[in-house]
Amino acid sequence: KINQLPLYCIAFLCVSGFSLSVADLKNISLPPDAFRLPDGYTLEMVAAPPLVQHPVHMCFDEGGTLYVTNSSGDSRKAPAQLKTPSHRVLRLVDRDRDGVFDYSSVFADELPFPEGILVHKVAVYVGAPPHIWKFTVTDGDDVADERVSWFNGGSIGACYNDMHGPYLAPDEYFTGAREAFRSSPCNSEKDSGTEEE
Prior knowledge:
Elements: H1 5-15, H2 22-26, E1 55-60, E2 66-70, H3 78-83, E3 87-93, E4 103-111, E5 116-120, E6 123-128, E7 131-136, E8 146-152, E9 163-168, E10 174-178
Antiparallel strand pairs: 1-2, 2-3, 3-4, 5-6, 6-7, 7-8, 9-10
């Protein structure tokens, strides 16, 4: 089943942004050349509005819950968004286990523009420049109640090619990408992003 996850992600991203009902979305036909799938694979919708409106990134946890960074639609420049962050992380659950998400809740809010998400062990990491935030739940209600700046990039540029990730590499190291046109060294131990968990 793990090799089917990218197809779920593609289907989710392609159709979840439309402002239509779920019934309408199920009847959308795509051009036959829009996707090329290997034999034995299918492409199906797994989430739609109102569960999620503007998905940006997503990551599954080990139980199949999908964490999605959801844009508020705010397109102001970075300094303005940092003053009043409005993006969120949603938590999507397939409660009846039929392969389609049927429940959505806000996991975390008031984020600057999200540039990546990673669920690892008991935490959710979100790249929202200039930080990578670590979110955890301590009271069992599925809403993040601890938010820590796990990595501080120190500065942010005027456009959103600043920091992307984090991603989990095959060697279990966290990786990411950063723009190549500006110097922003991280010299302190606090900014190293090192973690023992």
